[in-house]
Amino acid sequence: MSFELSPIxxxxxxxAKRATAYVKSGMRVGLGTGSTAAWLVKCLGxxxxxxxxRISGVPTSSRTAQLxxxxxxxxxxxxxxxxxxxxxxxxxxxxxxxxxxxxxxGALLQEKxxxxxxxxxxxxxxxxxxxxxxxxxxxxxxxxxxGWRTTKVxxxxxxxxxxxxxxxxxxxMNGDVPYVTDEGxxxxxxxxxxxxxxxxxxxxxxQIPGVVENGLFIDICDVVIVGYGDGRVEVRDINNGSVERxxxxxxxxxxxxxxxxx
Length: 262
Ligand code: 5RP
Hints:
Blueprint: H1 7-19, E1 28-31, H2 35-51, E2 56-59, H3 62-71, H4 78-81, E3 84-89, E4 93-94, E5 100-101, H5 108-116, E6 118-126, E7 139-143, H6 148-160, E8 168-171, E9 173-174, E10 177-178, E11 186-191, H7 198-206, E12 211-214, E13 216-217, E14 223-227, E15 232-237, E16 242-247
Parallel strand pairs: 1-2, 1-3, 3-6, 6-14
Antiparallel strand pairs: 4-5, 5-13, 7-11, 7-12, 8-11, 9-10, 14-15, 15-16
Bound molecules: ribulose-5-phosphate.
Ribulose-5-phosphate is lined by residues 32-37, 89-92, 102-108, 111.
């Protein structure tokens, strides 16, 4: 494979590569899901194989578990790990308070459980994920299959009283059949356009019988690492209010570009 990445992939790679600085030998690391998190898993795999990094990875999806094993990261379940040093994951949107929408890849439930069980959650993202107000990206809500149509109507009725700009909902599909999560549930996407009060919306949605979890991550993320297509990275830390700028080099010698298929 030639060393040709699109600017967006370079941005994702830059954020992921910078995030590896947070991972030290002996750590239990939550491994996110999605294309940005896949770069992180590949980078960590390279460090395990070539630099002697010793970590245990707790994947947030079956896809990530498979990739982690392929690249040589020892994998354990959250029940084995109990508590993690750090979780590194992507996001569909993040705002200035580092609140997030996640679940575009359908893994929001395991992602939220794993992130909440971590001393620190770090999000890696390209700059296109930054928003002033959450909600342009459809908010995923994981629901149990039993009675999902009723649950969907209850969600729509709940939205009537909430500060949002759109109220349509759709069942996520996988071709002709409903998309099924790793936990065997369905996902209803909420097309809200703009979420006025994300904390109360999250609480209200989660109270509906049949709803398992929603993709709003409020006060969970500690650090966002933003990557740019030219290799620049910005590390924004919500706890100490700092913003650190740097650069990641793209090295043709990086094996991750050649030995693992996307
Ligand atoms: C999966 C997620 C992903 O982190 C989110 O969809 C971002 O994915 P990508 O890095 O591919 O843009 O929440 O459930």
